[in-house]
Structures are given as C-alpha cells and as structure tokens.
C-alpha cells in the first residue's frame, strides 16, 4: 500500500502482515513512514491506496470510530492524553465505543483490569492527567487504548523520552497482553528494546520496507546493528 | 463538585429566583432580571459549543435572531399560536445550523471563527433587506404576548418566572450532558481532535450535534426575547451581539455552567450601572473587562474560586 500527505508520498509501497497473538515491531529512522502507516490503519489518514484487511474485513474508507469498533486501538505518538481531564475520565473516554454498546458493567471490569496492569493509575484517578509524569502518561495512554477491548493494539513510540526502567516495565506489560490474546504492532526507534519483545520485525527506510525477518535475525543482522543498534561503524568494518 | 454541593447550589438558585420574583415590584428591575435570564440562555448555548467542545462561533446572534424572527412572522403575520411557533422557531434554527454546520465545522480555530462570522453577517443582511417579510431595517412591530392555553404572560412578574424556569431547565439539561459520556467526548474534542478520534469518538458527528443543540437554545432565547419586547429589529441580532455573547462566556468562565450565569449577569448589568459615567461609559466598561481578563484569566467563576481557595490556605497556615 501507499500513503499520501497531499501530493507527498510518505509510504511508497509496503506490504506487511501480522499474525494473531504476535508482537511485530516496525523500526526505522525519523521520517521513514512508520507513523504514517499507523495513521492510515486507524483511519486518521484517509489518503492511501492499496489494500488493507483486518480479519478479512477491508479497512478501506473506514472512519476512525468504525476502526476502533472493529477492534483496533492506537496508542498515539506523543501519548495524546487529555491533560485537563482526570485520569478516570481519560480511561472512560477510551471506553467510548463500549458505552455506546451499553456495556457499563464491562467497562467497570475493564477499569479494574487495566488498573491491575498499571496500579499507579488507580492512585491518581481524580488527578488531571496532565499532572502525571511522562511514564505514567504513557501507561495511561496504553490503558486508555485497552479500554476499547482491542484485538489489535498499535503503539507508536511508547518509549519516547522515558527512563530505561519504565521502558522495560512497559515492554513487560506488552508481553502480558500478548499472552492474553492481544496482537501488538509496535513502532519504535528504540530498536533494541522493541526487538527484545517482538517476534518479528520490519525495517523501514524512507517509506519502504528494506528488511524483514524474525526478531532474532534482525538483532543479529549487520545492517540493523550498524544503523539502529548503535554499533560503531569502525567496529563493524574491522569485523568485516 | 460533589452531588451534595450540586444540590445545594440548585436549591439556592431556586430560592433566589422565588424571592426575587415575589420580592421585587419595580418593573424596571424585573425586566433587567428577565434580560439576564435570556442572556444566560445565550451564554449557556455558546458555552456548550465554545467552552466545552472548543468550537468558536462568532455568528451566534444569527440563531438568536432566527428564533425571534420565526416566531414574530408566524404569530404576528400568520396568527399561529405561540405554543406552535416555539417548536417551529427552535427547529428552524437547528435546521439552519445543521446545513451550515456540515461545511463550516470542517474548519477549526480562527478559520471556524471567520466562517461563522460570515454566516452571522449573511443572516443579519437577510433580516434587514427582506423587508416584505421581516419588516426590514425599521424592524418588526406587533408581536403578540405569549399565551399558552389559559395563561397569558403579559406581566413582568409572570415573564420573569417563565424565563427563569426555562433557564433552570436549560442548566439541568446542560449539566446532564456534560456529566455524561457525550460530555467527556466533547471535552476530549476540545483537547485534541485527533486523539479523540483515536479513542473512537465520532468527532464530526458530535461537533455537528452540539452545534445544532447550541443553535436551538439560542433560538429559544430569541423566542423569549421577541414575546417580551413585542418588537424586534435587525440591529439586535448583529455582529456586536455575537461578540457580546462570546464575551459573556469568556468573562463568566469557559466550560463553566454557572459561569454563563455570572457572565450574562455582569454584561447585562454593567452598562446600566455605568450610566453614571455618561460619556465615559464605554471606556469604563472596556477597562472593567480588561481588568477581569488580566487578573482572572480563567473567568469570574474559576478566578473567584481560586482566590477563595488561596485565602483559605493562608488561614490554615
């Protein structure tokens, strides 16, 4: 598929697949088209051509609310929580589509479930979300996305600007979620952290997929090592 | 705010309305209070749109005018009873809002402001130029008093109670919307439309719905205004009025239901009090508005609450 911003082609023809209950990560530098791809999946960027299917249902022309209802939730880049609203209201907003189905009881159960994953949120229920720390905000964004009961969870740079310990905690939660049957697509610049939890990965470069494979293969790949895992150029060439 | 304090506030409100209604005999004061009620409805309607959903409208007086003119034309020209012209006036405004809203609400920020401004101007010109129907620039005369079955609202006191009952109902309705799932979604749109869409809020539909609701409430205010004064003219529903409604919301407090009441009261009473300054009236008026915005940037309600809380903290120490 290809994606456009006006006349600019940001994703130049990529094809990828995700299997149920798999963690797939998309890595690549700034501007390589990862976020664009996620926006297109969620219906936030309607300007794309090609085919996109979710459980044999085409996502063509779907508006964001319909996408969420079909079971895809996005944890957007930069978290995009609602700062003046309380933590509880943020979570309830995540369940917006659930309330529409008149499933208030389910929402209550889900609230307990997500606060079980991130206990710190419960302590801060009545606080405006903007007063949380960066890590807590990221947890809130993930919890909010889970409130819609997604089958597929898309995460856009969840590690951005966070301490390594918190990144580790978030990656642990992703593994827990996968065990509970949620499929995860993880977009990351922090390639090492992402590849450690992922099963498979795709490497993006200026709008195309240049490499794909299992996480272990990618971790071992020379090019990936050089470009994204911070191995020194010198080391690399000496070794060759 | 808790349930209990909410109930206390409502009780105080109802008590104040009853006391003022029975206690005041001066027709001028009663009329001032009626105007405050009508302006509160206007401020409330815009606050739902602007304060909560974050969508600016600089053409709100148009809906106010549509409400007034539709009922004037129906009751005076076609002798329709006011009870029937009320739904007609409100529905007309809501219908116009729906038509206008579909293209306009795609805009945001300043652009939405410009779009609604243009809409307000067009409606104002229609009121002024379509003389055969609206009476043109000299206005529309001979609107009958409000009657509902055996009741006739032709005394100030009766009208006072009518208007403030409507205000109370409107406040309760808005409160219920704000506290619901939809209210949360509106505030989410205010914060970030993209993020709201990402959690599954149908932002386009919801914005249109709140716009239509807001127009309906403004038309209700116009209806009450027309049957109070028995005379309307295009000047009342022009750009200046739109700006005054925006000012009421901002001064009273964005996203604050009781703030609409305070904002409307201040902006209605201030010009009356300032008559004493004669030619300096507008200067003092402007100065007061500037002072409020500089020292209480979040509006009267929030600002005064902040001062009270700071005072209490200092006393605790």
Q: Main attributes?
A:
heterodimer; A: 240 residues; alpha/beta; six-stranded mixed sheet; three-stranded antiparallel sheet; globular; B: 317 residues; mainly alpha; ABC transporter involved in vitamin B12 uptake, BtuC; two-stranded antiparallel sheet; two-stranded antiparallel ribbon; 4 strands; 77% helix
Describe the structure.
The complex is a heterodimer of chains A (240) and B (317). Chain A is α/β, with parallel strands linked by helices and 240 residues long. Helices cover 42% and strands 20% of the residues of chain A. Chain A is built from twelve helices and eleven strands. In chain A, helix 3 (87-94) packs parallel to helix 7. Chain A starts with a strand and ends with a helix. The mean pLDDT of chain A is 84. Chain B has a single domain, classed as ABC transporter involved in vitamin B12 uptake, BtuC (Orthogonal Bundle). Chain B is built from 14 helices and four strands. Chain B is mostly helical. The chains are: A alpha/beta (240), B mainly alpha (317). The interface between A and B is medium-sized, with 28 and 16 residues.
Concise account of the structure shown:
The complex is a heterodimer of chains A (240) and B (317). Chain A has 240 residues and is an alpha/beta fold.
Lateral strand order in the biggest sheet of chain A: 7-8-9-3-10-11
Element-level helix/strand string of chain A: EEEHEEEHEHHHHHEHEHEEHHH
Report the top-level CATH class of chain B: Mainly Alpha
Give me the side-by-side strand order of the main sheet of chain B.
Answer: 1-4
* Approximate strand percentage of chain B: under 5%
Q: pLDDT under 50 segments of chain A (min length 5)?
A: none
Write the SSE topology.
The complex is a heterodimer of chains A (about 240) and B (about 325).
Chain A: E1 2-5, E2 8-12, E3 23-28, H1 34-41, E4 48-49, E5 53-54, E6 57-58, H2 64-69, E7 72-75, H3 87-94, H4 96-100, H5 104-117, H6 119-123, H7 134-146, E8 152-156, H8 164-179, E9 183-188, H9 191-197, E10 200-205, E11 208-214, H10 215-220, H11 222-228, H12 233-239
Parallel strand pairs in A: 3-9, 3-10, 7-8, 8-9
Antiparallel strand pairs in A: 1-2, 1-4, 5-6, 10-11
Chain B: H1 3-23, H2 27-52, H3 60-77, H4 82-104, H5 109-129, H6 131-134, E1 140-141, E2 146-148, E3 151-153, H7 156-178, H8 181-191, H9 193-198, H10 203-229, E4 231-232, H11 239-252, H12 257-273, H13 281-295, H14 300-316
Antiparallel strand pairs in B: 1-4, 2-3
Helix pairs in contact in B: 1-7, 2-7, 2-10, 2-11, 2-12, 3-4, 3-5, 3-10, 4-10, 11-12
């Amino acid at each position: 598929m290809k994606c456009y911003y006006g006349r600019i082609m940001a994703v130049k023809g990529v094809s990828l697949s995700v299997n149920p209950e798999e963690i797939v990560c998309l890595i690549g530098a700034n501007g390589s088209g990862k976020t664009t791809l996620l926006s297109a999946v969620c219906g936030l960027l309607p300007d794309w051509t090609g085919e996109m299917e979710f459980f044999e249902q085409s996502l063509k022309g779907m508006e964001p609310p319909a996408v969420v209802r079909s079971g895809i939730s996005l944890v957007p880049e930069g978290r995009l929580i609602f700062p003046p609203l309380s933590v509880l209201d943020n979570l309830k907003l995540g369940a917006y589509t659930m309330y529409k189905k008149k499933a208030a009881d389910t929402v209550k159960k889900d609230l307990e479930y997500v606060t079980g994953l991130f206990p710190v949120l419960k302590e801060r229920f009545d606080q405006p979300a903007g007063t949380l720390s960066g890590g807590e905000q990221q947890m809130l964004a993930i919890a909010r996305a889970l409130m819609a009961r997604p089958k597929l969870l898309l995460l856009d740079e969840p590690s951005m600007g966070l301490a390594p310990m918190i990144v580790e905690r978030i990656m642990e939660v992703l593994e827990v979620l996968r065990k509970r049957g949620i499929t995860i697509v993880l977009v990351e610049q922090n390639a090492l952290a992402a590849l450690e939890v992922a099963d498979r990965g795709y490497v993006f470069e200026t709008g195309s997929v240049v490499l794909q494979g299992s996480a272990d293969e990618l971790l071992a790949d020379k090019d990936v090592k050089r470009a994204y895992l911070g191995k020194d150029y010198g080391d690399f060439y000496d070794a060759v | 705010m808790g349930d209990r304090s909410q109930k206390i506030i409502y009780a105080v409100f109802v008590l104040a309305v009853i006391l003022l209604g029975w206690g005041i005999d001066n027709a001028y004061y009663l009329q001032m209070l009626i105007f405050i009620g009508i302006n509160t409805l206007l401020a409330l309607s815009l606050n739902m749109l602007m304060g909560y959903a974050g969508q600016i409208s600089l053409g709100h007086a148009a809906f106010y005018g549509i409400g007034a003119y539709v009922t004037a034309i129906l009751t005076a020209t076609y002798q329709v009873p006011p009870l029937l012209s009320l739904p007609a006036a409100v529905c007309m405004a809501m219908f116009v809002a729906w038509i206008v809203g579909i293209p306009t609400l795609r805009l945001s920020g300043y652009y939405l402001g410009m779009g609604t401004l243009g809409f307000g101007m067009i409606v104002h010109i229609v009121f002024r130029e379509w003389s055969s129907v609206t009476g043109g620039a000299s206005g529309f005369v001979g609107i009958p008093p409000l009657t509902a079955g055996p009741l006739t609202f032709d005394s100030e006191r009766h009208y006072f109670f009518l208007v403030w009952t409507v205000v109370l109902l409107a406040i309760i309705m808005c409160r219920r919307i704000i506290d619901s799932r939809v209210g949360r979604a509106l505030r989410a749109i205010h914060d970030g439309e993209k993020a709201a869409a990402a959690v599954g809020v149908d932002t386009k539909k919801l914005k249109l719905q709140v716009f239509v609701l807001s127009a309906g409430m403004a038309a209700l205010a116009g209806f009450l205004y027309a049957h109070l004064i028995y005379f309307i003219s295009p000047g009342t529903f022009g750009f200046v009025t739109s700006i005054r409604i925006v000012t009421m919301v901002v001064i009273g407090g964005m996203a604050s239901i009781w703030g609409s009441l305070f904002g409307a009261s201040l902006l209605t009473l201030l010009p009356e009090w300032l008559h004493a300054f004669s030619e300096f009236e507008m200067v003092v008026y402007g100065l007061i508005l500037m002072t409020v915005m500089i020292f209480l940037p979040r509006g009267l309600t929030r600002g005064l609450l902040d001062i009270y809380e700071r005072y209490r903290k200092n006393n605790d120490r």
